[in-house]
Design a protein that fits this description.
Blueprint: H1 2-22, H2 26-29, H3 44-60, H4 68-82, E1 93-97, E2 104-107, E3 111-115, H5 116-121, H6 125-140, H7 143-150, H8 156-172, H9 175-184, H10 191-194, H11 198-214, H12 221-235, H13 243-247, H14 252-263, H15 274-287, H16 291-298, H17 308-320, H18 324-337, H19 342-354, H20 358-371, H21 376-388, H22 392-403, H23 410-422, H24 426-439, H25 443-454, H26 461-475, H27 480-488
Helix pairs in contact: 1-3, 1-8, 1-9, 3-8, 4-6, 6-11, 6-12, 8-9, 11-14, 12-14, 15-17, 16-17, 17-18, 18-19, 19-20, 19-21, 21-22, 21-23, 22-23, 23-24, 24-25, 25-26, 25-27
Length: 500
């Protein structure tokens, strides 16, 4: 599966790169850019195209964590940091990769991936923020484009192919992926060109530490995490180095410089947010092979001696093990102790509905929605449960309100498509499925779903106008190859109800 995904990303990158290479002559590519010399080789639009292509393949590999509470947290902390280094020139998407290796990576177009292993290994929120800030700086300082520019004799196509192979290999944990991609991209010579240089790493440290301080985190969080990784390697030199050290080489000099840089800012005594603890707990529960092992882990200490976060992890473990009655009791205690934590309300409502206490479960969610309107994890979880209860109209209305006010993820768009289909609104279901395909980079599939919507006999005129206008808009961004494929293809042959 992973090798197939590598082939897909290489194909996508080849098509994407061919578009912006063939669209300009050699003279156009070499026109000087007064803002950044890197733009002469790889501009921000091109970086975004490459990033979307790679992101699509990572999603298709099934390794992106789709837990809305985890996704919400990593985006909150990421955008909080990005706001301190970004003047509106970059858009960011933060996501979590289901991988126990300790690592994080930046991709073209502002896509920042964080491994579950890194979140678990961080000792506090400042350390996690330090790593994310470092990756954000790689994007804002355009280290990828600058590395490509440093060796302009290498073709953009070969560089893009190599870049996609290496990043996909890093995300998948399979070295064969990177090796296969590098072979396709004409050997390993280009690897030096796209690897971050030592100066890039130091610059990312400097920018990242400043972002940490300005965002209210301890600026020493970055050097603290570097020290942890370095000590881990020194204590077990015969073992494979942590993945973070393999992709971000850390030396004693670099640690010392990071410490000195952080010392220029006031020391911040920050406490970990509840969301940080909840995210760690949820990921730890899912990391165990069986629910029973997760329960055993969270039962190591007596309940009376546990923190609220430990109790939350215990309750989630009970949920996974089907022990919902015990979970309800814990969630009730947690909500009673602190009504401001949305995760406690979500857990309580889920456990109540699992026990078929439908009225109580819906009342719990309804109260939470009043307290936290348009909170993404809350609405997504409630919408899923409403669909299970056969209340598709209510779910569709609630999810549509959320999507119209908060940018959704592809999986969230697919959820609203399911709600629309179950509510009997086939035209809108096809429209949402079209948007899902577009968000994952499948322009042809997106148009074909709109074609299916247009074929519905009872389609309203306003919908017809909207769908046709959307098709015209999409076609403007399609390559000649995609337009040919669209002309030859038939509309997607599944019903809106079946793509789940």
């Amino acid at each position: 599966m992973i090798i197939a995904a590598a082939k897909r990303v290489l194909t996508l990158l080849a098509i994407t790169t061919a578009v912006f290479v063939s669209g300009a002559g050699a003279d156009d590519i070499n026109i000087p850019d007064m803002g950044s010399p890197a733009d002469a080789v790889l501009n921000k639009s091109q970086e975004a195209q490459i990033g979307r292509a790679i992101m699509r393949s990572i999603r298709m590999s099934g390794q992106v964590v789709e837990d809305p509470q985890v996704t919400e947290y990593i985006n909150d902390i990421g955008h909080r940091l990005a706001a301190q280094t970004n003047e509106g020139d970059h858009e960011f998407t933060f996501f979590v990769v289901d991988d126990s290796r300790i690592n994080a990576f930046a991709m073209p177009g502002g896509y920042i991936g964080v491994h579950t292993g890194l979140i678990d290994a961080s000792r506090n929120e400042d350390e996690l923020a330090g790593v994310i800030a470092h990756e954000i700086a790689h994007v804002t300082q355009r280290h990828i484009a600058r590395s490509v520019h440093a060796n302009s004799r290498q073709s953009i196509l070969s560089t893009a192919l190599m870049l996609g192979a290496l990043i996909l290999g890093a995300a998948s944990g399979d070295s064969d992926v990177a090796q296969a991609g590098m072979a396709v991209a004409q050997g390993t010579a280009a690897q030096q060109q796209i690897n971050f240089t030592r100066s890039n790493e130091y610059e990312a440290d400097r920018i990242g530490i400043g972002a940490l301080a300005l965002a209210g985190f301890d600026p020493h969080g970055m050097s603290s995490f570097f020290e942890v990784m370095s000590r881990q390697q020194l204590s077990a030199p015969d073992e494979r180095a942590p993945e973070f050290l393999r992709t971000h080489p850390v030396t004693t000099t670099r640690i010392a410089e990071a410490r000195a840089r952080a010392a220029e800012y006031p020391r911040v005594q920050s406490d970990d947010s509840i969301s940080y603890g909840i995210t760690q707990a949820r990921l730890r529960v899912n990391a165990f092979d069986t629910p029973e092992k997760a329960v055993e882990y969270f039962e190591r200490r007596d309940y009376e001696n546990q923190t609220d976060i430990e109790r939350y992890g215990r309750a989630v473990a009970y949920q996974r093990a089907g022990r919902d009655l015990e979970a309800v009791r814990i969630f009730e205690d947690l909500v009673e102790n602190d009504k401001k934590v949305i995760a406690y309300h979500i857990g309580l409502g889920q456990a109540q509905l699992a026990l078929e206490r439908y009225a109580a479960g819906q009342a719990t969610f309804d109260r939470a929605v009043e307290l936290f309107p348009r909170n993404v994890p809350l609405i997504i979880n409630y919408g899923e449960l409403l669909l299970q209860l056969g209340k598709a109209d209510q779910a569709h209305k609630m999810l549509l309100d959320l999507m119209n006010n908060v940018p959704p993820t592809p999986e969230q768009v697919r959820l609203i498509a399911r709600a629309a289909a179950m509510a009997g609104d086939s035209a809108e279901a096809y429209y949402y499925l079209s948007e899902y395909r577009l968000m994952t980079g499948d322009l042809v599939g997106g148009v074909n779903y709109l074609r299916q919507a247009l074929a519905i006999p009872e389609l309203q005129e306003i919908q017809r106008i909207r769908f046709e206008a959307r098709i015209d808009f999409i076609r403007e961004f399609m390559t000649e190859e995609q337009l040919t494929q669209l002309q030859r293809s038939k509309p997607v042959g599944m019903t809106a109800r079946t793509e789940n």
